[in-house]
Amino acid sequence: MNAAISLGQGQDGRDVLLNLPELLATRLLVQGNSGSGKSHLLRRLLEQTATTVQQVVIDPEGDFIALAERYGHLIVDAADQSDTTLRAAGERARIHRASVILTLESLDAERQLRAVAAFLTGMFEVARSHWYPVLVIVDEAQLFAPAAGGDTTDEARRLSLNAMTNLMCRGRKRGLAGVIATQRLAKLAKNVAAEASNFLMGRTFLDIDMVRAADLLGMEKRLAEGFRDLARGQFMALGPALSRRPLKVIIGAVETRSMAAGPELLPFEAMRGEDLRDIILEPVASFTAPPPREPRPPPPDLLKQLEAYTAERQKPSNDASGQAAALLEEASPEDIWKMVKAVHLESEAATRPLPALFQDFQLRARISQIDVTLIGLEGFRLILGGIRAGVDYAYAQGAIWAEAVQIAASLPEDVQGVGLLLAFAAQQAAPCPNDAAIAASYGTFSLGRARRQLTYLQEQHVIVVQESNRGRRVAFIGTEWQTDWAPA
């Protein structure tokens, strides 16, 4: 997919475009002093991508809540949830592909660090089958990845810094695209900031921050003072998703309003101090305790919220419900098989992650007006594994292949393709697949890892591996399936 969004305009009046697929692969760092327009920039980015990619916003000040009303984000108040629940919620948000705003405004600094660490860890540790692309925006990132200690405990800082490091350093392969914003680069941990390849640098006044910003943009130090002259909403852009040379951009307008706007200047009607003396210094007869707080309602079940969110987005309209049902009746297993095979035949399909291939399949299904719920990721994985093994549609309808699929479905997700590859070869009494073929079905180039999959399947009492001077042969336990001898 080649998608570009407009961040704003350059000095020549032309739109400055941000390449979204490139951003998802290379990450973004935004820097600017308070009042430079960072939150406005992030809001513009979120609005422009809300209908294109899943979003997760770490919102320490409750600044982005208004996005939920317009774009349907799920608001999670971290104050209502335990760390365990937040960790599970991060995982479930990825599984259900829900856009989430994690608001932290009612928490103290210690609890904010722990809440962010728990939620990001849940997102990071989700199973490989749910590694869909997601844009993770972290405002005031210096709070969660500090360069030095503060008033919080060492444990809380360590947990939060580890989670932020995983997001920026190891998140790309898991589909996590970090967008971090900070007021001061000097306060942000260097190993977190260094992983970003795209930069948007706004107004800043301290020498150390100006020099570091200029260094990141590849500008001469004598030009660093130019960051003082940037107006609110103006940023210097650089990176593969933005521009190959430093480029000034004026951020465009936004449609939603900040929920954390600063105070407005109102007319001040001054009164004489003596006129207020009796009011301010009125004696207090006795201390009156504040009324007790009402008990907080029990926290909502986040899983049910996420499931309801997903169901609402997938629910067909009343006018189209009858047509959708009819399309479901017209869709045949052979049509699905052909679409999966078309995905398999695409260039680079062998090296792309399964979730990306499944997204391509869903797109083909929508174009063909077939309900994508007709087959889930599990079914797609088994069909694709059979196609990769060399099975055609007619053979897949037989009972013998159905038994192979049943055996593969009982295995862990990452070895199901290996099981199907070996099963088809054994059913045909064909030569045993070599290490390279097994590695390809596992999604790796390591021959050693391929051999370990054979050892694993043998330990699980699925196959028996025979080695001799004739080569290798594999037999499936409980069946008559057996490959011919072949070199490993």
UniProtKB/TrEMBL annotation:
Domain AAA+ ATPase residue range list: 24-272
GO molecular function, one term: ATP binding
Tagged with keyword Glycoprotein: no
Record InterPro entries: AAA+_ATPase, ATPase_Atu1862_pred, HerA-like, HerA_central, P-loop_NTPase
UniProt xrefs under Pfam families: DUF87
Record bears the keyword ATP-binding: yes
Domain of life: Bacteria
Keywords, alphabetical: ATP-binding, Nucleotide-binding
Name of the protein this chain belongs to: ATP-binding protein
Record organism: Candidatus Kirkpatrickella diaphorinae
